[in-house]
Amino acid sequence: MPETNRKKPDNETIYRVSKQLCWGCIGESLQFLFAHNLVRAAKWELPLMWDFELERYARWWAGQRKADCKVMHSFPEGDFKLGENIYWGSGSTWTPSDAVRAWADEEKYYTYLTNSCAVGEQCGHYTQIVWKNTRRMGCARVVCDSGDVFMTCNYDPVGNYIELVVMGVT
Asked: Where is the SCP domain (predicted)?
């Protein structure tokens, strides 16, 4: 079948295939996706779709952080090709829902009218979650050698330009 005629898989197909590939991964993937889409639904944004390429990239980056659990982005500053949220938690019990909740809690620092964050606060994780044009995501969680947790999510298309006064966030 030519590539152009292939039907893009829906979430049900994606999860069925994912479950066959990685029994333990499906639970984490669903937690990441469900938590993100709850935040988006509260702002009347379309739900995100899980993307295996983005998940693969996130797994690669989480693997790079396993030894040191260093909280750093996978792209050099200012050279983001994808949207990216990162999270670190002390101890091994932090879940995908915990990470998304922490990112979403930044909403309290975000002012929609001016498309800006409160001085000295972060809100970029939150705005990435609810960015209007973002459609796909993929995430990974790893327990680092230290016993702490590192999680990362990647988003496409990239958005989250706080300095632009656009209706990227509704």
From this structure: 27-163
Task: Divide the 170 residues of the chain into consecutive groups of 10 and give the mean pLDDT of each group.
Answer: 48 47 66 94 93 94 94 77 92 94 96 90 92 94 96 88 50
Tell me the β-bridge partners of 70. Answer: none
Please count the structural domains in the chain: 1
Q: Does this model's pTM top 0.85?
A: no
CATH number of the domain at 21, please.
3.40.33.10
Which DSSP string do the residues of 92-131 spell out, in sequence order? Answer: S---HHHHHHHHHGGGGGEETTTTEEPTT---HHHHHHH-
- Asked if the structure places residue 162 within a domain, the reply is no
